[in-house]
Amino acid sequence: MLSRPLFRFVRDDRRINFMRGRHMGLIVSAVLSIASVILFFEPGLKLGLDFRGGVVVEAQTPAVADFGQLRTALEHAGIHPDTVQAFGSPRDVRISISAPQGADREAQTQKLVDGVKNAITQAVPGTQVLRADAVGASVSSELFRDGLLALGFSLAMILIYIWFRFEREFAISAVVTLILDLTKTIGFLAITRFEFDLVMVAALLTILGYSTNDKVVVYDRIRENLRKYRTMPLRELLDLSINETLNRTLGTSMTVFLAALPLALFGGSTLTGFATVMLFGIVVGTSSSIFIAAPLLLLMGEKRLRREVPMTSQD
Amino acid sequence: MVPTIFPTCPNPPRTSRHVMMYYSRLRLLGVAGICLIGVLLCLPNFLNAPSSSLPWRQVHLGLDLRGGSYLLLQLDIQSLEHDRLQSLQDQARQALLDKSLGYRDFQHDDKSASLSFAARSDAELASDLEAMKALPAAVPGEFTVAQKDGRIVLALQHDAMLARAREAVAQSIEIVRRRIDATGAIDPSIAREGDDRIVVELPGVSDPERIKTLLGTTAKLTFRLLAANPNEAGPGATMLDDEETHGKLAVQDHVDVDGTALTNAGAVIDEQTGGWAVTFKLNSAGAQSFANVTRTNVGKRFAIVLDNKVIEAPNIISPITAGSGQITGGFDARSASDLALLLRAGALPAPLSVIEQRTIGPSLGAASIHAGVISLGVGFLLVVVFMVLFYGRFGLYADVALFANLILMLAILSLFQATLTLPGMAGMLLTLGMAVDANILINERIREEVKRGRAPLQALQAGFERATSTIIDSNATAFLAHVMLFVFGTGPVRNFALTITIGIITTLFTTLVLSRVLVVRWYALARPKELPV
């Protein structure tokens, strides 16, 4: 049974004419990315507790949660929650309060979290507090800065790596493709309203790393073929390279997808958003290798590419 | 040249162009040894230590998995500056008196962290400046002395204050530890963060309210006489809140005895009133000063001040020479024992305030472990099945390597007794998903070579050779990016980046070495005419 693989994604001799769809691919990608940039400004990202500061208390009531009762109990204690909403089961309730303003706001934030806990456990006896987080304004702005710094530095490392790894034309196309990937993922975040927090920064970065990896493999094959088939028209050569690496591209994206899937299904409130964004990023990263990164090379033009790749005689 | 394959070739011929297709017995033992060590290092996570002498290192579960509280405390540098300005002012006055120089209009400004005074006459300015420059600094370059518009200005320097803050944080950590230990919290972790912060992690503490209150109290106890007119702040006296009457009392700034002289404190029931009280005992120097003050001030009121609030201000009826006393101030059982605890543990050098709190209840922690383990298990299984279906025998070898990868990741985390959080588990799972990329690359390459009509051996060789640089490449990118994420990230991101970084290292071993060994050994034993690709 093990003597031979049971399945393949595509037959080895299959030659799909990807370049025929190149304009379509670029246009769709550009439209999606522009839409994403618009979504980034309006309605914008929903910041998580890490970045916006404030108080979030998650609790489980003994019976089905009565939001009205909880809200009244909170108001009675002088606390004005932004949202009191269900999450997970109907017994689970999530209370979210934005950071108080004023001079004494750090101490106020800390008082709020204890106030909320006391108010709801008194109003509904037997309520279990699952999570109680309070993030002061100074901390949240620092976390935001650190998160962006981490993202920025990691991105810089990826770009430097690409710059050293590829000749100029390849590097430019790779970076453009990554930017398109990143904007789409941010647009996805804006639409789905998943909270943008520290864990999400990690998701964005992992997606970029994965996407870069995918481009490296496809570009490597293109370079190899540029040397090998010196007279083959570029368009044909790109198609050949994509087709040759297609099983690998789909295989790897499949395994990463399969690894992230259970996180999205069973990961709980912390990881569902993270994993869903990962899944989206894997699809985007994989398709951009085929439909964006390679057509961009075609736009750059055959002459420039062939000049970039040294003509060593082999094979 | 085609190297012949013997499983135990004593001196394998080496060529730089070809990937190794034979493994000496030593090498094989080495690879097996690493895997075995990995398994052994993982054991402590699943078994109890058979003997206490064995190093039994486990992965620590993060607070999000075991439940507990995380508190980030900020040291109040301004209060530190304020206190220092106060003492600097005393020093300056004393120095001027000693040199019989006059001064007018002492002002101290907390905003600019400076203090200034006017010279008696312009003629004395130079000597004033001289005297101020001669004042001892607690740390080098602590303050600058300047002359401005006929006034002498002493300004605290930010860098020096940061140095003092670091010192204060070090002291505070000790006191915070004593206070937390006194509450009976199990296995707390208390560590410095940055210049002026302390991170406290309390596993299993799902209601940190009491600890927050304890840590939020500076517990600076002082005994001072009331001012001549207790209703008005005069020179050398300040109005303080009176807890007894909820009014205000003018208390002298001069401290006669302070909390550092305390040797013990305890909560007791006051025999006269039947309420709760806190008794204290002073060391000999403290007892001596206490006796002196009470002897010379019989009939006056002596204020017991805690954190700039007057707890009580009893009349001194007779000299107290025993070096012990009692504070009564409307305590209940809890507040009396908490105050005794705070006094025993000592005062904080500056107030601490909680600026971030994260608490995970025990049930959510258990649910998160469950979620993490289920995800890891299901994800692993999906990848394993996929690899067998799509890559047959070589897929199975990739799966063996994948399992070894999981073991080695856990082994390294255990070795360093690292913390594992839910995002960390996600990092492990994603590593597993990415790891088989190397096997896929190799297999696809071997398959291509076979299609091109190469013999099995050459196809294997070419496959390994050509895929290696791509594998190292793609792992290098991810490695760099996640090291950056680890260095600059905070909280959950760090753990995620850590497990991925460790995972990349183990992936290089399991894919470039282990799964290759498996394939090569199989080839050497089976000598197939065709490869299962």
UniProtKB/TrEMBL annotation, chain A:
Which Gene3D superfamilies does this one have?
Multidrug efflux transporter AcrB transmembrane domain
| Alphabetized InterPro entries for the sequence | SecD/SecF_arch_bac, SecD/SecF_bac, SecD/SecF_CS, SecD_SecF_C, SecD_SecF_C_bact, SecF_bac
Q: Does the keyword Transcription regulation apply?
A: no
Where does the record place the Protein export membrane protein SecD/SecF C-terminal domain? Answer: 117-302
The answer to whether UniProt assigns keyword Chloroplast to this entry is: no
Q: Name one GO biological process term.
A: protein targeting
Q: Give the bilayer topology.
A: Multi-pass membrane protein
* Subcellular locations according to the entry: Cell membrane
GO CC term, one of those recorded: plasma membrane
Chief subcellular location equals membrane
- Gene Ontology MF terms in the entry: protein-transporting ATPase activity
Q: Which SUPFAM superfamilies match?
A: Multidrug efflux transporter AcrB transmembrane domain
- Keywords associated with the record: Cell membrane, Membrane, Protein transport, Translocation, Transmembrane, Transmembrane helix, Transport
> What are the transmembrane regions?
21-41, 147-164, 171-192, 198-218, 250-268, 274-299
Subunit description: Forms a complex with SecD. Part of the essential Sec protein translocation apparatus which comprises SecA, SecYEG and auxiliary proteins SecDF-YajC and YidC.
Question: Main role?
Answer: Part of the Sec protein translocase complex. Interacts with the SecYEG preprotein conducting channel. SecDF uses the proton motive force (PMF) to complete protein translocation after the ATP-dependent function of SecA.
Q: Which family does it belong to?
A: Belongs to the SecD/SecF family. SecF subfamily.
Question: In its UniProt entry, what is this protein called?
Answer: Protein-export membrane protein SecF
What taxonomic ancestry is recorded?
Answer: Bacteria, Pseudomonadati, Pseudomonadota, Alphaproteobacteria, Acetobacterales
